[in-house]
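Hey Z.,

So I finally got round to the adenosine-5'-triphosphate thing we talked about over coffee. Here's the setup:
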Amino acid sequence: MSGAMSGAQYAVEAAGIEKRYGGVVALRGVDVRIREGAIYGLIGPNGAGKSTMFDILCGITKPDTGTVRVLDMDVAGLPAHQVARRGVGRTFQRTAMFGESTVYENLLFASYGSMRHSVAARLLRLPVWRQDMAAFAAKADEVLVTCGLDGLRDQPASSLAYGTQRRLAVAIMLMNEPRVIFLDEPVAGMNENETASFIELMRTVAKGRTIVIVEHDMAAIGALCDEVLVMVDGRPIVNDTPARALKHPEVIAAYLGADDDEPA
Ligand SMILES: Nc1ncnc2c1ncn2[C@@H]1O[C@H](COP(=O)(O)OP(=O)(O)OP(=O)(O)O)[C@@H](O)[C@H]1O
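And the result:
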């Protein structure tokens, strides 16, 4: 692997990651170091091991071998829900939300886990409940504006256009104030305008956060990422800026050999 960038603080550090599924070797020894504040892409042809690596970095899949630290947590040794509670957010390819509920209600549901009040406090409208709800309302207002959803708060989630639903998925994630965000193919299925507006949103959201993206859309990767790791056949090939990584001879050869993506 060549061209790794230097940086003092890493939000994500994984070393020696190996993973097998029965006889299939998905990852053959992958190291990743992602600087705090970076927008970092995992790319490569189909079957390269990107999704497996991504799931390992955010704690959903456990590696067979290797260590993973995110925000100094030992992610490989923690249950996924604990990782999620400690500053790590993730969106999924299939949008996870309550379709019949409004945009605002979806934000409220996402916030219950971090609220302090009991059911009794809510029923009795005790001060602890009022404080939680005031904090929620302030946060929700901020997140709705950031995500361009402030005019849509009372709309059922299922009535939103696909690209807007994806922005709601980001809003839901932002309610828990993640410091590291994992985005799984965020612009897949979006039209050109939706993609452009999503990229704009990600630039805003990236301020003060680290973002890790798996994405097949190379234009989106080029527009967003400071740095990419190109994986081929379970191995890291190059870690560099998108423009330089996509000129690497092994990367060009790997994409030419695949029938799915084009590297430029
Ligand atoms: N749950 C699983 N069971 C068996 N094999 C798996 C499983 N998940 C992944 N694999 C295999 O591991 C390898 C890496 O898959 P992975 O999905 O991580 O690649 P990818 O780069 O994300 O591919 P794509 O771009 O097509 O999503 C592939 O050979 C895949 O078939």
